Amino acid sequence: MKVLITGGAGFIGSHVVRLLVKKYPNYHIYNLDALTYAGNLENLTDIENEPNYTFLKGDITYEPAISELFKTYKFDNVIHLAAESHVDRSITDPLAFVKTNVIGTLNLLNAFKELWKDKFEGKRFYHISTDEVYGTLGETGLFTETTSYNPNSPYSASKASSDHFVRAYGETYGLPFVITNCSNNYGQNQFPEKLIPLFINNIINKKPLPVYGDGNYTRDWLYVIDHAIAIDLVFHKGKNAETYNIGGFNEWKNIDLVKELCKQMDVKLRNPEGTSEQLITFVKDRPGHDLRYAIDASKINRELGWSPSVTFEEGLKITIDWYLSNANWLKSVTSGAYQNYYEKQYS
Ligand code: NAD
């Protein structure tokens, strides 16, 4: 079986690529990635020489190259993660998000449809999405698979649009698909613009920890490897044309999460208690900031038997330990030096 994974050099994608390459030696895993600032092949050095793995450098927004790739490799299945993924960047450059997240997804859908026409037996287009498409919750309630879409940021609007296109291709052309909407991920190899690695990096470097507004924004957090395990499960066992929500049953107010991180980092760095908390700085709120996201992941739990394998305390500990013992990785991504790796390795 030939499986195309898009965005496999990114944070979540690299964990999915590794899991499938190792677990399914009889599949061939193709990793298609444009290697934007968020894509880093150093995330995959341990599997880059595996015989069932191929890296393909390419941009999903460029239609001719995408349709050519599908004709050449005849991918049976697609697991689509490539995206512009950072909300703050979407506020300053929404069009980049429409190009990659909407048009890029359409290019993949069209190439997949053209390749298999209506002979879709045994084929699947699996689209990875976010809980942010549902908009915001008040103090109570949970997002379920039937919650109406109500995106509030250009990022979530672009992801919502791509979800709708995937579903529409299922209805209109009979394209077999599955969609998952997941909560915030954390773990090793996350680019340090996202909250947890940004704050770990800032604590290491004694830089301010910028907390939006009053810090009462609430998110559900899931360890990235648990997300990768869920993706493997949905890819193989999920029902066609269904959506599954994936979450950690693990809600945190940002300010509480930051304080917990500070506490654990102080222990690791042998700082006197309370040292890192002094770095917390409240900053002007992000426009359109959603108050609370929380996922009801009972459908995937009930139907596919998935639940998180680690607690938040365990996941956070693994994550902190990883960033502390991979100072070179952090240095290389913050300086952009990792981008030279591709040139060295693949040119
Ligand atoms: P990421 O930003 O770490 O990685 C995105 C990857 O896509 C990078 O390797 C990048 O090079 C690649 N990419 C970007 N534009 C491309 C293009 N035009 N062509 C080809 N490749 C391109 O993102 P992530 O956090 O790993 O998220 C992966 C997916 O999961 C996204 O679709 C995101 O919406 C979704 N998601 C993320 C989270 C989260 O907390 N990070 C939660 C739920 C869903």
From TrEMBL:
Its EC number is 4.2.1.46. It comes from the Bacteria. It holds the Pfam family GDP_Man_Dehyd. Its cofactor is NAD(+). Residues 4-318 form the NAD(P)-binding domain. It is an enzyme of class 4 (lyase). Gene3D superfamilies: NAD(P)-binding Rossmann-like Domain, UDP-galactose 4-epimerase, domain 1. InterPro entries: dTDP_Gluc_deHydtase (IPR005888), NAD(P)-bd_dom (IPR016040), NAD(P)-bd_dom_sf (IPR036291). Keywords: Lyase, NAD. GO terms for molecular function: dTDP-glucose 4,6-dehydratase activity. GO terms for biological process: nucleotide-sugar metabolic process. It catalyses: dTDP-alpha-D-glucose = dTDP-4-dehydro-6-deoxy-alpha-D-glucose + H2O. Belongs to the NAD(P)-dependent epimerase/dehydratase family. dTDP-glucose dehydratase subfamily. This is dTDP-glucose 4,6-dehydratase.
